[in-house]
Amino acid sequence: MKVKIKVWIEDDEENLIFGSGKTEVLENIDTTGSIAEAAKKVGMNYKKAWTHIKILEKHIEEDLVLRFKGRGENSGTTLTPKAREVIQTYKVLEDDIKRYSEERFQELFHKNGKEILSPKEDK
C-alpha cells in the first residue's frame, strides 16, 4: 500500500489557482506553442484549457501566457519567464510534499517490519 496526495494552491476565498492540471496545460503550451494542441495532449477540450488560462490571468498579477494571433511564423502561444518560474516552484513544492508524505506513511504504517494496513489475502 502507498499514500496518495494531490497538491494545489488556493486563494483566501478557496478558489483553486494553481495545481497539476494547470501545470500540465502550461507545460504543453510551452512545447506545442498552441492552446489547442496542449488541450489535445492532456485530453481536455479547448474551452477547459482556455478556462485554466483565464483563471490564471484573473488571479495572478503577472502574465503567464502570451498569445500572438494570426497564422504566420510569429503566431501562437508562449509562456513568460514568470510562468516557467511558477511551474518549477510548484513542482518543487509538490515533490517535497509527496516525498515527506511517503516517508511519514512508512514511519506510521509500518511498525516492527509489518504493515498495520495489510491487504486481505484471497481465499
Description:
It holds the Pfam family HTH_1. Residues 24-83 form the HTH lysR-type domain. This is Molybdenum transporter. With 123 residues, the chain is an alpha+beta fold. The chain is 52% helix and 15% strand. It has 4 helices and 6 strands; from the N terminus they run ββαααββαββ. The strands form 3 sheets. It has a two-stranded antiparallel sheet with strand order 1-2. Helix 1 packs across helix 2. The radius of gyration is 19 Å and the shape is elongated. The protein starts with 7 loop residues before the first strand and ends in an 8-residue tail after the last strand. The mean pLDDT is 90.
Number of strands: 6
Going across the major beta sheet, what is the strand order?
1-2
Which regions contain 5 or more consecutive residues with pLDDT less than 50? none
Q: Shape, please?
A: elongated
InterPro entries: LysR_HTH_N, Molybdate_resp_trans_reg, WH-like_DNA-bd_sf, WH_DNA-bd_sf
Pfam family, one: HTH_1
Protein name: Molybdenum transporter
Domain HTH lysR-type: 24-83
Could you outline the blueprint of secondary structure elements for this entry?
Elements: E1 8-10, E2 16-19, H1 20-32, H2 35-42, H3 46-59, E3 65-68, E4 76-79, H4 81-109, E5 110-111, E6 114-115
Helix pairs in contact: 1-2, 2-3
